Amino acid sequence: MKKHNFSAGPCILPQEVFKEASQAVLNFNDSGLSILEISHRSKDFVDVMEEARSLALELLGLEGKGYKVLFLQGGASTQFLMAAYNLLQSKAGYINTGSWSDKAIKEAKIFGEVIEVASSKDANYNYIPKGYDVPEGLDYLHCTSNNTIFGTQIKDFPTTSAPLVCDMSSDIFSRQLDFSKFSLIYAGAQKNMGPAGTTLVVIKEDILGKIERQIPSMLDYQVHISKSSMFNTPPVFAVYTSMLTLRWLKKLGGIAAIEEQNDKKAKLIYSEIELNPLFKGFAAKEDRSMMNATFSLVDEDLKETFDAMWKEAGISGVNGHRSVGGYRASMYNAMTMESVAALVDVMSDLERKA
Ligand code: PLP
Predict the structure, then answer these.
(1) Is pLDDT of 2 > 80?
(2) Where are the domains of the chain?
(3) Do residues 112 and 91 make contact, with C-beta atoms less than 8 angstroms apart?
(4) What's the CA-to-centroid distance between 102 and ligand 1, angstroms?
(5) Does 148 appear as a known binding residue?
(6) Residue nearest to ligand 1 atom 10, measured at CA
(7) Which of 26, 192, 242, 292: CA 20 to 30 A from 335?
(8) Residues with Cβ < 8 Å from 121, sequence gap 6 or more?
(9) Predicted confidence (pLDDT) per residue in 269-309, tens digit
(10) Can 15-252 and 254-353 be said to share one CATH topology?
(11) CATH class of 15-252
(12) What are 245-255's pLDDT values in tens digits?
């Protein structure tokens, strides 16, 4: 039986993408060769890379607006330092909304002054800070759109005259935004796109080339742009699978269509968390994430029973992150309504039994 997988990753993809990707490992495009063994310089793979890049731009509504798309390696964690390496000349602002923002701040401090413009660390990151002033004269302002661990999501992005940089690792392609507000978007592929091993970088070219330091080639966005993401051997399987997921998303109707589904899934689980007296949510109501719902039992004595019930129902990956505890239901793009309903059924069964 296929499980209802609520894991935060890696990596939750549609079944048809898993199927097509596995077929390509055996026989890519009827070539008699595996996607893993063809040359990354061959026309077949260059076409894959081109299609992945153009689908990303198209789905984000950024075609013809001066953006370049890269598929790099090293995960979003490398982007924490790469963004600063390429953009931080004197000072940058950071909105600290969780452990991932905190890690990004730590890396940026190596390169210059970092101003923590706002933070929700005081409440174990259970809300998104609001009403803060963004100082003038920043090289850029960095935020994290969705806080995977804590289950909060930025709904209104900060206004600033500085380039806006955003880590969208856990909610890229899940909701409609005016993506042209951002000068740099990065996202590890492994939630909504493909296997771990590649990171999507969408960058407005005109913000580059403004800092004085020398940048090692592998960490220089301009080098990767000039080599069309082929400066070194690209992670071919991760890029190919990401391309398949983007094709799937386009066929479905793009971000608008998936957002409608994501909204329904989120409403279903959050209404259960609210109405069922046995559970309480972790995140502030107005800041709740559509991707990761964090909640816990009001009475920990019910844990053993609840855990046995969801396991019995074929549910997996629902345990909370150690820094929050309780439960976390991750509902990325590929998660079906049927799976969310299965979890909600178990939660309401518990209420009936208790
Ligand atoms: N940023 C966010 C929001 C994440 O959720 C994660 C991983 O889950 C990361 C960054 C780190 O990504 P990576 O493991 O690709 O370095």
Answers:
(1) no
(2) 15-252, 254-353
(3) yes
(4) 12
(5) yes
(6) 76
(7) 26
(8) 96, 102
(9) 999 999 999 999 999 999 999 999 999 999 999 999 999 99
(10) no
(11) alpha beta
(12) 999 999 999 99
Quick one: what percent of the chain has pLDDT higher than 70?
Answer: 100
- Enter the tokens of residue 284: 């502030």
Packed helices 236-252 and 43-60: angle between N→C axes, nearest 10 degrees: 40
Question: Which amino acid appears at position 33 of this protein?
Answer: L
* Atom of ligand 1 at shortest range from CA of 199: 15
Cα(147) to ligand 1 centroid in Å equals 9
pLDDT digit string (tens) for 79-126?
999 999 999 999 999 999 999 999 999 999 999 999 999 999 999 999
Q: For residue 97, say whether it is annotated as part of any ligand binding site.
A: no
Cβ 152 vs Cβ 127: under 8 Å: yes
In order of 81, 213, 325, the CA distances from 118 in angstroms are 20, 28, 24
- State the catalytic residues: 100, 167, 191
Which tens digits make up the pLDDT trace of 159-173?
999 999 999 999 999
Q: Which atom of ligand 1 is nearest to the CA of 145?
A: 3
**Ligand 1, atom 14: closest residue by C-alpha:** 75
Range 254-353: architecture per CATH: Alpha-Beta Complex (3.90)
